[in-house]
Design goal:
The chain is mainly β and 422 residues long. It folds into two domains: 181 residues, Macroglobulin (MG2) domain (Immunoglobulin-like, Sandwich), CATH 2.60.40.1930; 116 residues, Immunoglobulin-like (Sandwich). Helices cover 7% and strands 47% of the residues.
Length: 422
């Protein structure tokens, strides 16, 4: 007898009863697997339409799409999807397939949508400037956005984790921001597991700048099922945001990995000192330096194990902005002075060990919080922006030291006094 390759058996038992033989085949479930997943484009200006394609083993019964921008979950049977992201932001989405034998597999993806300065208008359309003759179009646009374009890159509500995946006992660091804070309204944060069950809930009051954060330990009887977990943030009756992460599963007991360390690094620059709050798990922060000329923030770490870094970058110290292309040529003139801080945001470029990595991000008007994963043995994280304050370099420090020593030597030799003698 020939058994089809699509039917597997794990147990064959022959029972002899009164001379008869009985052959028992117990079927084995074949776990689902996503064999191929692609999406494009991965980045671009809003509105951005992204096409998704997924391939899987086994007979697929349902496909669940969560695009990570608060639009909700779409459940169907299609392995292809398209979605349009209407506003700028970093979106972490998931696709989860379920086969006919109730096996599941999932994939996480990250979409980077940038803001756009120009408006989308039809061909031949005319947009009048109501202040024509008083201010130019750029100045009028700034006036309409309270003299800053940063607001065009902020979502009404955003939420992210410090990493894209966690194991049992890990601490999940959650950051978020509310664009327009209303009185003492709290943000409700819920975590839903892959079976759609509630595993955690909290209410957080945003700070005056709209930022909020919390930590959740992934352990205990509610943290058993492996798969994609969804975080849902709700602010008021109509404003919500979602993100997701992958959880490796647990045994139902309470286990704790090494607790994350939270601290603040004070960085001295020529424009003053800046406090940089951070939380790190799986390692320690050794030093933070700013290369003001190249707009690079370098974080030196000691990583005895895999982990993640959540770091708040003050906008006044360093930022990453879209760059305007100013026309040049003999017949081109420009009289508008553009302040970099007024331009819309674009994503930081982040390298760990010299390799570009994906990061999570939330931001408010004053700072941008990045979640960066690293591996055991990594030592250097480079965060690259487009604008920063100037920083004291080694030559400037040497010149300052020589000047101080020279003043001391001259005063000792000539008896020069800096304080009057009475």
């Amino acid at each position: 007898m020939r058994i089809s390759s699509t039917f597997c058996a794990t147990l064959v038992t022959i029972i002899a009863v009164f001379g008869f033989s009985l052959l028992i085949l117990i079927p084995q479930n074949v776990s689902a697997d996503i064999t191929n997943f692609s999406f494009k484009p991965t980045t671009g200006d809003a509105p951005l339409t992204v096409s998704f394609q997924v391939a899987s083993t086994g007979k697929v019964s349902t496909v669940e799409w969560n695009f990570g921008d608060g639009s909700g979950t779409i459940t169907n049977t299609s392995l292809n999807a398209t979605h349009t992201y209407q506003s700028a932001g970093n979106y972490t989405g998931t696709v989860e397939i379920t086969t006919s034998d109730h096996q599941t597999a999932s994939q996480t993806f990250l979409i980077d949508v940038t803001g756009s300065i120009g408006a989308n208008v039809g061909a031949g359309a005319t947009i009048p400037n109501p202040n024509n003759g008083t201010v130019n179009a750029y100045q009028y646009f700034l006036h309409e956005h309270n003299n800053t374009l940063t607001a065009t890159s902020l979502l009404p509500l955003s939420i992210q984790t410090d990493a894209l995946s966690y194991s049992q006992g890990d601490t999940i660091i959650i950051h978020g921001a509310v664009k327009n804070v209303s009185n003492q309204t709290a943000v409700t944060v819920r975590i839903i597991n892959s079976l759609k069950n509630l595993v955690s809930i909290a209410q957080l009051t945003p700070a005056s700048d709209g930022s909020f954060s919390t930590q959740v330990v992934a352990t205990g009887p509610l943290w058993i099922k492996a798969g994609n977990y969804t975080i849902i943030a709700q602010y008021g009756p109509a404003t919500n945001a979602t993100t997701s992460f992958n959880y490796g599963g647990g045994d139902g007991t309470s286990k704790l990995s090494a607790a994350p360390t939270s601290s603040t690094f004070t960085l001295q620059t020529s424009a003053g000192s800046f406090n940089i709050p951070y939380t790190i798990r799986g390692g320690t922060v050794q030093n933070i330096q700013l290369d003001g000329q190249n707009h690079i923030l370098t974080v030196t770490i000691n990583a005895p194990s895999d982990g993640s870094l959540s770091i708040d970058i003050p906008r006044a110290m360093m930022d990453s902005k879209q760059q305007l292309v100013v026309p040049t040529g003999p017949n081109q003139t420009s009289t508008t002075q553009i302040n970099q801080a007024e331009l819309p945001d674009q994503s930081f470029t982040v390298q760990v060990g010299g390799q570009n990595v994906q990061v999570t991000e939330t931001k408010d008007a004053n700072s941008r919080t990045l979640g960066i994963s690293f591996h055991k043995g990594d030592t250097t994280i480079n965060i690259m922006g487009t604008v920063s304050v100037p920083e004291f370099g080694p030559i400037a420090a040497l010149v300052l030291a020589i000047a101080i020593i020279s003043i001391i030597a001259v005063s000792a030799k000539t008896g020069l006094r800096f304080m009057p003698k009475y």
